[in-house]
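The instructor's notes for this session suggest beginning with a concrete chain rather than abstract definitions. Hand out the sequence below and ask the class to guess, before any prediction is shown, which regions might be ordered.
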Amino acid sequence: MTLDTEHSRSPPVRQPAKPSSGGGGSTPGPVRRNVPGLALAGIGLGLAERVHALLPAVPMLTAAVVLGVVAAHLPGVRPFVRGRGRVGLSTAGKRLMRAGIVLLGLKLSVGDVLGLGWATVAMVFGVVLVAFFGIWWLGRKLGLPGDQPLLIATGYSICGASAISAVSSALGKEDDDERLAADVATSVALVTLCGTLAIAVLPLLHQPLGLDTVQFGRWVGAGVHDVGQVVATAQTAGPTALGEAVLVKLIRVAMLAPLVAGVAVAYRRRVRGAAGDRRRAGGRRPAVVPLFLIGFLAMTALRSTGLLPAGALDAAATGQELLLAAALFGLGTAVHLPTLARSGARTAVLGLASWLVIAVASYGGVLLTT
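After discussion, reveal the predicted structure:
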């Protein structure tokens, strides 16, 4: 697998560190540099929680991205976002996201996956492959900039915002790469929007498509992006459909590990094979197996032991959502709407086409295996 990114992208220009205005003339330490931006991310998290409480149909992660974009364009906040708060917001978008992905592993157990049978596992694997490579190819043909084709393909085929952030972290680029942060935020917004629309549209297709309860649940699990959106969509057909949907969805989550590892290996080879690319990546190579991915697998293994009480799992699920929301707020602040508008039509076309690709692929897979 080869990864084509925007070849014209130039490395961020690093300005010399400026002395602190304090009497000592020394630069602030990393903790002090991160505090302002992390504090703003915390405020954004609180606002996202409030929006979700007032409008339950709006996922907290969606609200966090939107609020980040708004903060980046508010006249009174924009200078802070682009200046003093930038370091902490970038840290939130990278570090907190990785921590949330590690906790995501606690939603998955090997026993649940095997309980569905190998035919269903193979079906989900096939749907993920078709959706990932089909959407990625289409995005490149449409000429979307940067890493957007790769990230959008990942979000649609695996598990929305979590998968997009996991793959972006596996690329081994600089933590302050604003182009990548903007690509991530754009991809998350698009995938989240289409997943939210699925909550309203898919239940209307339950009867017209001739699906029974089990089939509908599996179709939702294989075709809807975020876990929360899967739950909201499948519960309209009752507890049986909901159970099937969540289990199928968790199989898709399990595909996150091999996909991220594959992207890391492919990107590593591309960087190693071209000296210019390596210089553009800041001289770093992505790890073959990123540390946060090892953490994800470790949490899955821990969940599979059955030793963790329900209270601990609930607390981890809450912590995971909070970490991801704060991270997505930070990523949202990197979005520049005038730049996004220049590729808006192509991005919208890819979003709708991607939604159709995974819906059709998952529908066919469910009919073949049930």
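Then share the key points. Residues 136 and 150 are 5 Å apart (CA to CA). The radius of gyration is 20 Å.
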